[in-house]
């Protein structure tokens, strides 16, 4: 079995460069092979960085290298989607164990490049390093769409929407931790949704306020919106869309050995990578917005409203219970 140690750093970089050739775009003046890339954009650049680390974001037995490559790219794209940006270029910094199989490393990179190609994204450079655990850091460069969407533009009176079901991925993580490796919830973790088209559509719609991607849990990410915009939020917990598989699992669990609350996964779990957005004058605009987003491949649902700022950033609409929690890198671990 060939390993990275057996072939060395530079042949591996050459293999990556060959894989990346298929994703080359007209905006690449100079790509992989020089000290830096030279790129051409038509509009303002939108730049984001995302890292995936073994033992923090995933465990090796949960995903194949191919699945991990696709997941890493989709998770990073979620930030560009939340800003209404068009994906253009990617830089990849990889840390791998020297005894890692070459086939696994190539499988990860190949899947990542292939997933990016579908979105018009070209891999234009990066770095490789030996290290004790696998990690991949993606720097994505996009260009601004119709407008740059932000998280600090929510206003009291806005309705709150999400672009799809929440809670499936974090429930999948719970099952993976319990040793159940296969199922629709586990697959929700392995392959997050793509919301690039939805983000671009939101940038075209008048009345859209704040936008953020739901990566660390609905309550946590909505709290970021509230803090940035100096507002608070009320959530109608029962209206949060849940994956059918999560409802089925919760029902079966309650019959066997005690109940679980599927809404807890939706509120606090994370890894959903749907978009949360606020909408002004929802009565007038709601149908047009929902129709536009359905054409972009998602079914948005209202889940609450923005209210004037109080001491409680996010609460349940039914009884005013304060809602707090979500994923934190210096708190929860996978």
Tell me the CATH architecture of the largest domain.
Alpha-Beta Complex
Order of helices and strands: HHEEEHEHEEEHHHEHEHHEHEE
Strand order of the largest sheet: 8-10-7-11-9-12
Stretches with pLDDT under 50, minimum 5 residues: none
Top CATH class of the largest domain: Alpha Beta
SS element count, helices = 11
N-to-C span: 30 Å
Q: How large a portion of the residues is in β-strands, by DSSP E?
A: 15-25%
CATH topology description of the largest domain: Phosphoribosyl-aminoimidazole Synthetase, Chain A, domain 2
Number of domains: 2
CATH superfamily of the largest domain: PurM-like C-terminal domain
- Total strands: the figure is 12
The overall pLDDT average reads: 91
Main sheet summary: 6 strands, mixed
| Helix/strand structural class | alpha+beta
Give the C-alpha Rg.
21 Å
Percent range of helical residues: 25-40%
Shape call: globular
Give the structure's gist in a few sentences:
Helix content is 37%, strand content 23%.
List keywords for this structure.
single chain, 334 residues, alpha+beta, 60s Ribosomal Protein L30, Chain: A, Phosphoribosyl-aminoimidazole Synthetase, Chain A, domain 2, six-stranded mixed sheet, four-stranded mixed sheet, 11 helices, globular
């Amino acid at each position: 079995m060939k390993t990275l140690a057996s072939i060395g750093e530079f042949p591996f970089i050459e293999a990556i460069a060959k894989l990346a050739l298929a994703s080359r775009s007209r905006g690449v003046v100079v790509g992989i092979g020089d000290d830096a890339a030279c790129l051409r954009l038509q509009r303002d650049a939108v730049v984001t960085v995302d890292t995936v680390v073994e033992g923090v974001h995933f465990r090796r037995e949960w995903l194949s290298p191919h699945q991990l490559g696709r997941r890493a790219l989709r998770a990073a794209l979620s930030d560009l989607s939340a800003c209404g940006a068009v994906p253009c270029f990617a830089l990849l910094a990889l840390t791998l164990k020297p005894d890692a199989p070459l086939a696994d490393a190539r499988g990860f990179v190949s899947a990542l490049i292939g997933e990016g190609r579908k979105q018009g994204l070209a891999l234009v450079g990066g770095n490789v390093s030996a290290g004790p655990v696998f990690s991949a850091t993606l720097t994505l460069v996009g260009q601004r769409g119709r407008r740059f969407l932000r998280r600090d533009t929510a206003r009291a009176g806005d309705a709150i929407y999400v672009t799809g079901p929440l809670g499936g991925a974090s429930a999948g993580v719970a099952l993976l931790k319990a040793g159940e490796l296969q199922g629709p919830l586990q697959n929700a973790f392995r392959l997050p949704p793509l919301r690039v088209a939805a983000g671009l559509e939101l940038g075209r719609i008048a009345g859209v306020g704040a936008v953020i991607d739901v990566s660390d849990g609905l309550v946590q990410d909505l709290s970021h919106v509230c803090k940035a915009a100096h507002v608070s939020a009320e959530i109608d917990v029962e209206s949060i869309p849940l994956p059918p598989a999560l409802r089925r699992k919760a029902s079966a669990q309650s019959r066997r050995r005690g109940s679980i609350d599927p809404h807890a996964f939706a509120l606090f779990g994370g890894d959903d990578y749907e978009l949360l957005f606020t909408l002004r004058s929802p009565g007038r605009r709601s149908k047009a917005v929902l129709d536009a987003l359905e054409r972009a491949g998602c079914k948005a649902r209202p889940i609450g409203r923005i209210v004037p700022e109080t001491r409680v950033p996010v609460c349940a609409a039914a009884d005013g219970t304060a809602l707090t929690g979500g994923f934190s890198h210096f708190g929860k671990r996978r």
